[in-house]
Design brief:
mainly alpha; 11 helices
Length: 261
């Protein structure tokens, strides 16, 4: 078949698609712009709430206490506890561990350290852990929570050899250095795990809050025409709009680009 016979068909299909796209843009662009406004209002509300109320501080405090409770509970498991007792270690108190974290990072100012971004908070924890390793008496419960998954014998060696390291033989110094490196490795992995866990939960609840606020805004707007939509319809539309609102800005840009073509 001659290629020239395909040309009118291709042009017809192209023209039909172009008309459909322009019609789609004309119909949905106002809706997308309205949802974009909802998305902006939602983010502005969340940001204002974070500036006025100590949301991040309370969230980080809850997560830090929860994490210390979990690591202390791991030490209390029968097999782990037996190994700790054989090594001469004292199981950590999670409440004391939290207060020692605050003392080692900001000299007791909990609001200062807990209000930081999670990356900065994790950095402060890492700095405090080095102090605790160099001087276990400065934060024994904090250190034991951070090193809950380390080998008990290594942790015991770090605490016992710290004050007598200079008097040890070269072989014993090398063994102590290896034990210290292993403990520090587990401590860093624990802090990394805490950071990843808290960051994931923060993003999850931030998303939930944005959906809830977007839903409330749209539902309030539709309540003025409740007779037209009905309560069930208004709720359903509000749920859909709450999910679409966060990405509506990109949708508006795409539709505007389609209209220009």
């Amino acid at each position: 078949m001659d290629a020239s016979m395909w040309s009118p068909m291709i042009q017809s299909v192209s023209s039909s698609i172009q008309v459909f796209v322009e019609l789609l843009g004309d119909k949905f662009l106002p809706l997308a712009m309205a949802l974009s406004t909802v998305g902006v209002a939602t983010m502005a509300f969340i940001q204002m709430a974070r500036e006025i109320f100590p949301i991040r501080r309370k969230f980080h405090e809850f997560q830090a206490r929860r994490w210390f409770d979990q690591t202390a509970a791991h030490v209390q498991e029968p097999e782990v506890l037996e190994a700790w007792k054989k090594a001469g270690l004292t199981p950590p108190d999670p409440a004391k561990a939290f207060h020692q974290l605050v003392r080692l990072t900001t000299a007791g100012d909990a609001g200062a350290v807990l209000s930081l971004e999670i990356e900065q908070l994790a950095g402060q924890m890492a700095a405090a852990s080095r102090v605790a390793v160099d001087s276990p008496s400065a934060g024994p419960d904090f250190l034991h929570c951070l090193a809950a998954y380390a080998y008990p014998a290594d942790l015991a060696d770090v605490e016992k050899t710290r004050t007598v390291y200079a008097s040890l033989s070269k072989e014993d110094q090398a063994a102590a250095a290896e034990a210290r490196a292993r403990v520090q490795h587990f401590i860093q992995r624990s802090i990394d795990g805490f950071q990843v866990s808290v960051s994931r939960r923060w993003k999850f609840w931030h998303h939930i809050a944005s959906l809830a606020i977007g839903f409330a805004i749209v539902l309030a707007a539709l309540s003025q025409r409740r007779k037209e939509w009905g309560m069930a319809g208004a709720v359903l539309i509000s749920i859909v709009a709450a999910f679409v609102a966060p990405v509506s800005k990109d949708l508006v840009a795409a539709l505007q680009q389609l209209r220009k073509k």
